[in-house]
Structures
1.
Amino acid sequence: MAKDVDLSSREWTDIIFEGKNKEFGAYELRNQSVRRHNLAMLSVVVVIILALLISLFVGSIERAEETITGEAEQEMVSVDTAQDEPEPEEEPEERFEEPEVEEVLPEEVLNTVKVTEIAIVNDDEVSKEDEVKNQEELTQTETAFGASDFDKGTDDVTVVREVKNEVVVEEKKPEPEKIFTAVEESPKFPGGDAELYKWLSKNIRYPEMAAQNNIQGRVTVQFVVEKDGAVGEVKVVRGKDPDLDKEAVRVVKSLPKFIPGKMNGQSVRVWYTLPINFKLQGS
């Protein structure tokens, strides 16, 4: 009998729940299961159809946009090619340049020979200047008779004035060597810092005006220790009073030679910072 009954039909449900409480929720759920399955299948089919339609719609929009973009690019390319057409070159105007005239330097004047012509004239027409000299006068003169007079100049025909282009070469001043602020071996005062401050205390002369005005304080001086240990450039980096600053610079310039600083085993120029305290006795 069970083989002739459809398992999804209402009859099969009645057979199962025969003699049972049909008002219980399971009976209703069983009766409505077929309907729910059909609605679910229909919903799935509808969703698939909608997805296909949306994908087709989006694809058509993208193809339309690509077509519009391609047409716009073609128009832009055509406009650019039209703008990039080279303009016809203007033929250069013919200019007639005047030939350059080379400056001819005057050659030195060569000696010229004056040829004296002998003319026969009357005695009255002979001037004193043109008077013929006698034998005694000829012997007294240093010039030989009939000698030619020469103008001032040079005897060398090949002598031509030469213009020499002088090139002025400026001597380059050597660049100052680098002054280091930090080195492998710092410069040292002979005997160390204790000897340095002892030397300063002995050689500092307290300025009279500063002492009268009870001016005290620290002056920081910076100076260059040269490669030979001598004190080079001196400057005040932090002053206290003009008189104290001046005295600090003076005493630093009179310092004896340091042991120079070194970099890679070579002596170099190094900045050295030295604070100097000015303090009055009894204060």
Note: The radius of gyration is 61 Å.
2.
Amino acid sequence: MKKFLAMLLVAAMVFSMAACAKAPEAAQPAATEETAGETAGETAGETAETAEAPKDGKVYKVAMICDSSISDGGWGMSCYNAMMDAAAKHGWETAVSDSIEQSAYFDTIDSYCTLGYDMIYAPGNQYTDAVLQAAAEYPDIAFALLNGAADTPAKAENGNVSSLLPNATQIGWIAGALAGLMTETGTIAFIGGMELDTTKGKYEGYKEAAAYVAEKAGKTATTLDIVYSNSFSASDKGIEFAKAMIDKGADVFFGDASAVDSGARQAIDEYNAAQGSVKVFDIAQPADLLGQNECIIGSQVTDNSAMVGSCMEAVEAGKLGGDVIYGTLENGALSAGAVSDLVPAEIKDQYNAYIEEMKAGTFMK
């Protein structure tokens, strides 16, 4: 019944918007488990004004599902913008259902498949089981799984799943190098959303890069044990974790937890305000978020739009998946964002030099 209602809601909204669809000016309202798919209709049928029509004349459609909000100022927003940018470039119509519960993953995907969407975009390893189940039932639909494991495409019996896999270790390096250079207390922190392999990889990269650059600078950088919120939307957990880690001496933070990271930044900003100056810092990801919070001193940036666009091109060429699309510093999919003026000039220079070493493959060697 829940699946049937979700499909009806998506279909009704798509039909009602067909005559007047346009690109949204802001993020759409969140979908709950009961209304999963409802927000899809609010963007279904939209095409960016600058979109180029596909070469074969067909209008392709992509739908994104997300368990965090696309207005979270972090992961959800960045992944949504990646889809929108890729769709604008390739002339695809788009839809999104955000803030959905884990129990609604498959039903929401199934609803879009029933409505004839050409590609489903799921931005996170946590959607793997739902994606593989849907891919088995819909062999003619492509599925793009961001942060999907390298072996996931081989598990899809119809060869219609692609894993978009940014290098988690390098993501950690980009943030860790800045953290190791900036820490004054010698203690830094990492907040995770769910205990995923990609999150663990980011943590390990962050930890080792920070320790390495700190030692080179004649100091130490110890990373506190990773904490998990088991949610990407519980901003209150981010506030709780940040306060506890600041009490343990952490003065630089990095996270992989979407809205939870936003909560942590709120707590950090409040702490700094009470101190009368910015003494605790945060490094954002996966977009350049400098200026969003006073505590943000830099960002790790992932160009997810390029990887999503590669999947769109494959669909247009008649290939539905079956491969892994890697994102690295070397191919430009990963990069460091702008650095705050809170970072001294000499540290900026050292940081930029380390980023160049990462690109060249000589970092920590």
Note: The chain is about 40% helix and 15% strand.
3.
Amino acid sequence: MELQRVSPESVGIPSQAVSEMLDELYRYGIEMHAFMLLRHGKVCAEGSWNPYRPGVQHSMFSFSKSLTSTAIGFARQEGILSLDEKLVDIFPDKIPDDPSENLKKAEIRHLLMMGCGHENEIEWDGGDWITTFLHHPFVYEPGTHFLYNTAGTNLLSAILTRKTGQTLTQFLRPRLMEPLGLSDIPCHALQDGTEMGGAGCSLTIEDMARFTQFVANKGKWEGKQLLEESWFEEATKKQIENRGAGWDGDPDWQVGYCYQFWRCEPEGVFRGDGAFGQYGIVFTKQDAVLVIQSASMRLQAVLTSVWEKLLPAMKEEPLPENEKTLEFLQHRLNNLELNPMLSMRNPWAEKSLDGKVFLPDQPAPAMTDLIGGAGKFTPDGGKLLSLGFRFRGDDAALLCRQDDCEYEIKLGLTGHFDLSDVNGVPYGANGCWKGGNQLEVEFRNTTKVTGKRVTFTFLEKKLTVTALSTQPEGGLNDDPTPELTFTLSEGEAETKGKMYWETK
């Protein structure tokens, strides 16, 4: 079923309030990727910031935890497990020979509420992580001490697999994904095959909206009660105190933790929450849902913008439409883009480089590994054999040849991000010349949260490539990727003469 699209005013939200929320996010410097606002189950505002696209699955980080919680709810409903089952009974083969009293008390519900009793998270050395988790000291009586514990959520996924023989996503597919019309959600797996229910899922913005609306509906979808209402009443209420638990005093991290959901400061509001600002917010009193994909470290600022600009403007009755403000909002939503670099061309250098091929001076990683962003769990593999360039008017591209494939990535030199598809993975790029011999390009693998700012420096017959990671709020960070050097291939050097910068 398609989600119905309506105007904000028709569901009691002024278009201006949506614009003011976007203004506030911009004022805080939040890097937004996408959002979708629903009221009474209808989409009333949505947008994606180029090069991010609404149909592309985006790294969710800990928003995945809410999906895992929901899977446990389905398993309980079907009698596969109960929340008071003891970890020592589920994993008798992985517990210490002499388990502590606190470990013996630890139950599934304590994993759900982040209160299993650990004082700190495990340090995994690549061995049997479940054994490591169960041998880690259970310092506190379960249910008495909050510790945000991603490994504990991964253990919930492992419990589901032990009970059913299915992975987390296999279990959820017929129960959640297919009935809600979600895309086939991928989830990164650990070495033992356990899917990372704590951080490994990727969703489109509409996947997020449909799932969060399902939670807001307390398990009902298209008139069918798929998951019992009582589960959501339990899963979204405060289960454990989290005040003073190391979240720097941000108010929306001090209001209580549920079963892999967070309570929020405004009354009747809770959320699913992933790193860098992946939010699924439910406003129970207003019958509204807001989902956000972003790349921010100012997590409280994102929520504060919503509480101050959007929430107070929601009215119970439809509002008269203001054609001017509605048209302004729609125009804005249709033209969202990350802050691009201004177009700065160098036609003489481009003419020299068009068709040239450079060979690496040392073994070089795949270009897609060089430009991959945060949320990239595993490298693509492959070795880079050559880099080439094409400059023909607005058609500017980086040509990559590897030992396993060939592909090109548009460079976006017209003041906007250009989109490319590399072996099924969407990329955006935006670049400009910084001088006579230096080309700077920001690359985004748009399934990830951050990207890479890559500088190509040309000197005589040499090319040097350096990369910095883009950071939330527009920063750049040192990158572990070493500087790479290339040499113009001998045939190119012999037949095409001097490069532009050699004549300066």
Note: The first helix runs from residue 15 to 27.
4.
Amino acid sequence: MFRFLLPLVCAVTVFTTACSSNYNADEVPDVSPEALYQVAQGAMASGDYTLARRYLEALDSRYPFGALSEQVQLDLIYVYYKSRESELTSAQIARFQRLSPTSPNADYVMFMKGLNQIQMRSDLIQDFLGLNRSQKDPTHYYEAIKTFKELIATYPNSLYVTDAYQRIIYLRGQLAEREYEIAKFYNAKQAYVSSIRHCQNILFSYRGTEYLDPALELMAENYAALGLPVPAGHTASVAKASFSGR
């Protein structure tokens, strides 16, 4: 396993280092902003985000108030995100929202903010290996849900609303899974009260997820282990009545 991971880690390190490098402006030719942007567009279309970033940053530096300024800033958000430069993405989003709060693209920027917050909870190795993210610190997921809810409330007619709803459903499922795994952990350690509390978190906060049924069953098991047959019976009855038809 370690023989497999070592070259992967090295490759990811080289890739990440390349993505975070500061490019010399002299590498970009002194041509018109339109010509520079054409190269950047072509690079983005082909997935060459390193080249796209180089030309977009040159455009942003040389022509900060040009006709292409807003589009360049939007493209930088996307390129930084695709390059997994989360901090740069956050900074660019904050910059855009500060300078162009009434832009017709404000909903897109808010959507990208949510996507970036999701991405901040993972890394290349985890994604490559398909590792479960549910056990990690959930802070970024809470922030992403808040961002997507703000998008839906502020821009109800946005093209990104449907996707935002789906992202919220996914995130709530991930958070519910985390609570359930913690509840199982405490149950295995015979810390039944702590296990019940995490089951209750699912009942109160993540009722629409697939983890409600197993959480109720586990909660009934915990009550029984504590010698509390009445709440154990009530909880089991609720689980049976709610999910027996599934």
Note: The chain is about 75% helix and 0% strand.
